[in-house]
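User: Sequence in, structure out. Go.
Assistant: Echoing your sequence, followed by the structure tokens.
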Amino acid sequence: MTEKKPEVWLRGPVDNIPALLQPVAHALLQAREEINLLMEDFPAALLWEKPGGVASPGFHLQHIRGVIERLLTYAGGEMLNAEQLSDLKKEGQPPSTFCTVSDLLTPLNQQVDKAIAQLSNTDENILTAFRGVGRAQLPSTVLGLLVHAAEHTQRHTGQLLVTVKWLKSERA
């Protein structure tokens, strides 16, 4: 029997992540673990189902990846590019070809890896630096964007958990 590990935040510091950004890394890594465990053996046929009109599991998987990417783009002082804007418009829409759970988990996992790499390269001295969000350049900071990436990821992880359990229980 596999021994259950403590939650990520109770395993100590994540290597190479500045101290002030440890909670962001912990939240992103915890979400990834929970999502991958939750989606084991989840049927691809249910990815785009919306029980009770809530967002589909496929949407949550696309959205979590996309939000992390977009918020970290802003945190890096950049604007979204055409591909990111196009991806945003596609969130929640099934791909035109058959899509597996792995087709959605792989890019999400890769995005978390990119986020951890960006956190490791973030100088704590710039955490309060202004960062504009979107075309309107709404005010935020590097830290605000990184924290929001973590908390938004956790919010959608919780929604995904409920939706997946709901769909599995309907199918049983």
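User: And one key feature?
Assistant: The domain at 17-171 is CATH 1.20.120.450 (Four Helix Bundle (Hemerythrin (Met), subunit A)).
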